[in-house]
Each structure stands twice: as C-alpha cells, then as structure tokens.
Amino acid sequence: MGTKWIVDYVADLFNLNVHSLVIDRNGIWAIDWINNRQEKMLECFKFDKNPKYHLNAEKDLNYVLRNARASDYFVLNDMFPVNYRFDGILGPVNHLLISHGHWVTLDNLMTFDFIKIKVRGSRISVTDLHSFLRHWRAGGSHQMTYLGLQLETYRNFERLEEELEIIEDRLRNGDERNGDYSITRNDGVKAVMRFGTQSFVMTVLPPREII
C-alpha cells in the first residue's frame, strides 16, 4: 500500500506515467496495478530472479508472461522450472532478453512478436533452426531484425550447412561480415547468419545493406 501511495502521489503531482517496472515473483501484484492505473504502456518490464522456492512457480510465470506489457524492453531474468512450457504469445515489443531460456521452443520463436531477440541458455536444436529459417524465408517473423541464441550445449552446425538449401554461398567479398552465411526471404530481404559451437546469430539487413 505504501508503494502504491508514493507512486500515485508523485505521478499525479507531476502528471507522469510509470515508465518501467522491475519486480520478482513477490511483486507480481504490481502488473495489474500498473495496467489499471494508466493507459500508457510501460516502456520497460524486467522480471528479476528470485532464488527462493515458490510453490506456485509455473502459475506465476504464466501470469507474468500473459499479462505484463511493455513497448520497448521485455527482460526475463528469473529461473524457470526445468519442464516449463509456454503456449501463449509474447509481444509486440521491440526487445526481448531471456537469461535462462531452456524453456524457449521452436514454436515460441515462431510466435514471439519482437524486433530483437536474445536468449541465453537455449536448448534449440539445429533441426529447430533449420525449420525456423524456412519459416522466416516464407515470410514468418517478418518484424524480427535480430536473433541471438547462446546455446546451453555444443551444436554441430555442419548438418545445417549441408541440409539447408536456402543458404547461399559463403560471403567472400571482403566485407566485415566475411565468413557469415546469407539467406534471402521470398520478398528479397536478406539476412546474414553466424554460428559457433554454442551460438547462433541472425541479423536482417536493412535495404541499404542488401548485397
């Protein structure tokens, strides 16, 4: 009640909206409070790690993912249960950062509505990436301009290189992205990809950078 009173007093005094919200699981009540107190969406939402065991962990996480709203940054730092799965839609938001992303599936990547996505601790497989690139090439996730995955374990991308027919020749033009791979969407938009044993990065090129 004290937090609500202080925020309401200051916001009303200076005619301001709440810009950002940083909470852990003990602060989930603030999501509905913010959604009800102002029409303007938060610009930044951050869900921080709570190291203490919580009986309603999956229920709370589902509530946060389905109800928290932000326009610019959506940051998830909390630990998710090993077998946690999310079947909803996140976004639209500009940036998504997930610190413990073992729960992020291929379906999640295909339905996330973000411009830039960065996931640490990902369990996405090479086969999943193959499917995602075909999805992107067909026009899916058209708003996305960056996807960065730090993988939880080693991945052998030779299989992706051999099987993915849509990958074009390795760039050999002296460009600073030399050594990357290029992929073209059906509408002519290009993206470059770089992958290591435990990382995958895809960057969509703006029109002036199309090569």
TrEMBL record:
Keywords: Coiled coil. Residues 94-147 form the Sdz-33 F-box domain. Residues 150-177 form a coiled coil. The keyword Ligase does not apply. The keyword Endoplasmic reticulum does not apply. PANTHER family: F-BOX ASSOCIATED DOMAIN-CONTAINING PROTEIN-RELATED (PTHR21503:SF8), F-BOX-CONTAINING HYPOTHETICAL PROTEIN C.ELEGANS (PTHR21503). This is Sdz-33 F-box domain-containing protein.
